[in-house]
Amino acid sequence: MQKRIYINFSILILFCVLLLAGLFSLLFFNATRAQEMDGTRNKAYLLAAMINQGVGTPSSNGTTRITLISPSGAVVYDSHFEAEALGSRADREEVMQAFLTGFGESVRYSRTLSSYTFYYAIMLENGYVLRLSRTLYSLGEVFTIIMPTLVIITIIVMTIAYAITRTLTSRIISPLSKIGLNDNDYDYNDKDFYEELRPYVQQINSQKQQMATQLNLRREFSANVSHELKTPLTSISALSEMMANNMVKTEDIAQFSSKISSHARRLINVIEDIIRLSEFDESKVEREFTMFDVFDLAKSVISALQDKADEKHVVLELLGEPLQLTANNRLIDELLFNLVDNGIKYNKEGGSVTIGISKEEGWCKISVADTGIGIPEEHQSRIFERFYRVDNSRSKRTGGTGLGLSIVKHITEHHNGKISLQSTERVGTTIDCYITLGTS
Asked: Is the dihedral angle over the CA atoms 259, 261, 263, 265 positive or is it negative?
């Protein structure tokens, strides 16, 4: 079974690698082409200026082809070929534009160079036209360049993951295989039974009972994870296949690339949030606590989200005063960011989000209140559950993963704190997080 899981996992990884290779190839292809074209234009202007001032002459630099064309269209110089063998270039699009307007450019397949080439022509003061051309990579060539590196990285990662998985699995399963799931599985008076195992057997039995009460929640969580990951992957796959099969117009490629990028960002956000919650579940979250001013931290969070608030005309306000807190700076920053971000997302146009920092009987109280849509009373008891959304369609439109408030709750509990919510539908929501000032 373990091998079957690993094989399926490997197939999924390979699929993702191919998908990412196509996406990165497209992005790299567009960026490289634009860079090469800009570089050719700049070289043309620089060389033209030097020729006009009499301080330079056309010469080959190996990568860029330079051609000098007379007013009649005849080639008088070419850095890569014999000028006499090239004939007239008066009918070339970029040359005609240069004679008419002073400059011109075009991208086309060059029979001389046997590749797609970018041409840029500029008229000199003496009436001649200076033309620079540069071969452009095709999308297939870019994919070929990127793919070997991704394959090597994938093989290395999969090999390391397989070795670690086997080692960890063996170490975990070996001792657990000797422990039953019920106290009755053991005769505690048996001379071969280790008394030290008693608390572990009892703990496992207790966990089994807890798992039975949480089975429905786990099934719901698994279904939500599958759905949240499948949706963007399906969209990315469909868009990529359309582009790969030339079903997309040239003018629509940028729009399709933007959609792929958007779905990829959503997929990354969901995965990062799931990993973060997994770290809390496994008690792997760092406990590197330091002393810092939580009021200053709130200022930085407001600064980071100010543009997003301005787009929705939401006013961000910070109340309170400097307050020293001993806690994990990065986690408290994440807590503040999630709460304020939610306050903006689910607010009304022209609303406000108020962040309060105060000290209350040994607690640092972090309060975030918005004037948004509010949460219906019947949903409030479940709002901190993973993937729970009051309005699925609205949450997805705003980019929410349904995990932000669950992460906030975990961060609060990680600092031995407590959290409360007050909300009225169509009026607003206030979430208060209490963090012990002396947490260590």
From this structure: negative
